[in-house]
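Hey, I'm writing a tutorial for new members on how sequence and structure tokens pair up, and I'd like a real worked example in the thread rather than a made-up one. If someone can provide the structure for the chain below, I'll link this post from the tutorial.
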Amino acid sequence: MVYGLLGITLILALISIIAAWKGTSKDLRHNWHQPLAALALGSFTYLYGTWVYVSIQGKYIFGAVLVLALLAGLLRKRREVSRGAGRLIFNLLITLIFGTMSILYFTGTTGKPRKAALSFPLKTGKYFILQGGKGLPSNFFHISYRGAIYAIDIVKLNEFGNRATRIFSPRLEDYGIYNDTVFSPCDGRIVRTRDENPDNLPPSRERGPSNTNQVVIETDSFIVFMAHLKQNGVFVKEGDIVKTGQPLALVGNSGFSLEPHLHIQVHTNSHSGLPWYREEPLYPEFDGRSYLLFEVIRPKRVNMVNEGPISE
């Protein structure tokens, strides 16, 4: 699937660049709809494209080349084109579909979500939202899992703008986020931990979701679930009281996971006795800012908590 999505990204990028150049090089009085369609397709590809599997820099290069293609077409000598109803309808349809998808990237389909204010739990580099967003369509892979409509998956970028040394390396150490320290995103009580499950070797995830190493933190108003932690890599135990910025665990690749990453989802704590994942999902906000699919996160510098967990 990943290779297919990457191939689609590159094909759509090429199509939108060519269409932008050709569209603006023609008489815009009769051909205004072609560059409009190219921009809609290009915006969709820029926002949803799986550039990180090559390098996140590819996204910015594509955006620059698309703008240059539009400008280059405008500078060419224009020529008349025939007015075709079929071409007009096709381009307007492309504009409607991909323009709507681009708008939904920012708005989502879940209305205005309630947020949970957290501290970003990773501190040592530049990170990336591999999956996430305000429900459909951007958070497609989480939408069916136990109320995880606002859940996010985080990876770490290396100096080349990639999350690993290649698309799928079987060596866990080749992934930037593997073995990274997870810090507590809030003050609270540890209500569940697991770290006995072995890490998957990418891209296998055959062990499934029931074998996920995890930490669950309860506060008075919400519950935070963090998963895919490293085997024997959890530092706290159930019942511990933790503070924001306190080390909790190491990132691994346990459970239903293709590659090392940190999964985070937040739910309201209504004290109703329901399982945490059946409570209302909340949209995580880190250090005063919320993030969408394929956005880069540069953590703020914070003071770490050095003391160990407090047990009752």
